[in-house]
Amino acid sequence: MTVTDVPETSGTTTFDSLNPATGEVVSTHPVHGPDEVRAAVARAREAAAFWSSLSFAQRAERLRAWGGVITRRLPQLCEVVHAEMGKPHADAQLEIVLAIDHITWAAKNAAKVLGPRRVSPGLLMANHAATVEYAPLGVVGVIGPWNYPVFTPMGSIAYALAAGNTVVFKPSEHSPGVGTWLADTFAQVVPEAPVLQVVTGFGPTGEALCRAGVDKIAFTGSAKTGTHVMRACSDTLTPVIIEGGGKDALLVDADADIAAAADAAVWGGMSNAGQTCIGVERVYVHERVYDAFLAEVTKRAQAVRAGADRGAKIGPITMPSQLDVIRRHVEDALARGGRAVVGGADAVGERFVQPTVLVDVPEDSVAVTEETFGPTLTIAKVPDMDEAVRRTNATSYGLGATVFSRSRGLELARRIRSGMASVNSVISFAAVPSLPFGGIGQSGFGRIHGPDGLKEFTAAKAIARKRFSIPLNLTTFSRPAAADKAMATLATLLYGSGGKLPRRSRR
Ligand code: NAD
After folding, report:
1. Which ligand 1 atom sits closest to the C-alpha of 399?
2. Same domain, 93 and 52
3. Hey, which of 9, 30, 60, 261 has its CA 20 to 30 A from 433?
4. 3-class state of residue 219 by DSSP
5. Domain co-membership, 72 together with 42
6. Residues 347 and 221 both lie in one domain
7. What angle in degrees, to the nearest 10, is found between the helix axes of 56-72 and 74-85?
């Protein structure tokens, strides 16, 4: 969807959600101002008393019911996603089914991950029982992007809800209808209280949410906006998760399955019209297989077409302003000695960008250093995989990565400076609900998905319970001198030999 007009005032103003393929109005939504956002958070605070009083099993039942509603109404939600952000229905369905899988995983595993757990009290505190449990924070604010308007925010929403928080969700101004659809269907399965609410609007609505007294903000969007979010949250020490952008690389080793690697590069780079935070943007290929790989990529990329018809594999560029970024990246690459083996500068149209594969692009070109967010790939030949890893890591981002190698996949994946990696497949880490999702560096911090994602929306609560008294009571002023002596002896026995070098290595 596209937005017609950024209003200067807030409150009663509305904005239109536009179909990015046609420019038609999809729906109209209010621009919520600070007062309305604060009121939503106040309602969420009250609802938190109800929601957190339910057991994990009761919340899980509601979340599974929500997953059921979404599943039964899948074609309807696919249509809203398609209309607002332009991706083909089949891609919308893929994203939504993965999101339902995450809802189900979070519902099923919250009790196990967050429920009370006994831990060893250690020798010195052996007369205590030690328990750790993870309590919900209260109200979580979720600020989402438009590119995966269901899957991406759901990584925060489902996990925050399963952990016992209520949520106020501010969807992107390009996908307000999707956000509203999600909150409406949730209200069907949890009619008692506004456990999941939506506030709509532009950046200022997101900023108002940061300042509305929520207990945590889960932000997904560009690194630049992430800095604004952190600044707004810093006034109230509101903690934040930042899921930012990326410049992910795919590495192809000399022993890789070339056809599979090429398929992954084209799908990873071009699906969703390249508007994927963990999409493949750069490819580094071992020189021994470079020619064969490039031929395979060329063949596959030529078969992909952007369009609005059912036969098109990719849709429009959702944000009109992104077209200029893509054009600038392609033109810079070509002006600095790069070649387009598929597409090129002409591939960037008024709403659609056709697949573009660039080679011989200097490593300091913006096409290699900045997030392009279009259906483009840069492919570079490297003498060995050490060089591939070095170039992959020469970025301020650190979100995901892909490695194709028969013998060294895990080793190379570990050497890449990123939060996630896939070996011999692409983007697969995002579809495994038990794996944490998130980046490092300019790609952000904090994790959604998996046990780490559940814990992000909780505060660890530590409880030490004394079970019986022992002579060595240390936490009292009436401690006898003998207790201190016994303590010193015990410490010597337990830790005194630590760090001593073996006799024969002493000088
Ligand atoms: P964006 O940063 O423009 O906007 C994201 C959200 O932040 C929107 O809802 C927007 O209204 C809101 N916002 C804008 N200004 C704000 C402010 N000052 N305070 C609070 N909120 C504000 O990003 P986008 O264009 O919607 O999404 C694309 C970006 O998101 C890309 O960089 C992409 O890589 C990234 N992304 C990251 C992930 C991830 O999980 N790491 C997933 C999807 C997208």
Report:
1. 41
2. yes
3. 261
4. strand
5. yes
6. no
7. 70
Looking at the 3D structure of the chain, how many domains does it have?
Answer: 2
**Distance from residue 212's CA to the centre of ligand 1 (Å):** 19
List helix spans (H) across 151-257.
Answer: 151-162, 176-189, 203-210, 223-234
For a pocket test of ligand 1, which of 156, 168, 172 has the largest count of ligand atoms closer than 8 A to its C-beta? 172
Q: 178 with 228, same domain?
A: yes
Range of the domain at 333: 249-432
**pTM, full prediction:** 0.95
Helix or strand (DSSP H, E) at 479: none
| 257 within a domain of the structure (yes/no) | yes
pLDDT tens digits, one per residue of 127-163 = 999 999 999 999 999 999 999 999 999 999 999 999 9
**Token pair 């400076």: residue:** 417
Q: What CATH number corresponds to the domain at position 159?
A: 3.40.605.10
Within a domain: residue 497? no
Contact 358, 339 (CB under 8 A): yes
- Which helix (H) or strand (E) segment is 444 a member of? strand 444-445
Q: Out of 277, 296, 370, 371, which one is annotated catalytic?
A: 277
Top mutation candidate among 205, 220, 243 for ligand 1, by most atoms within 8 Å of CB: 220
> Model confidence at 470, in pLDDT bands (50, 70, 90)?
confident
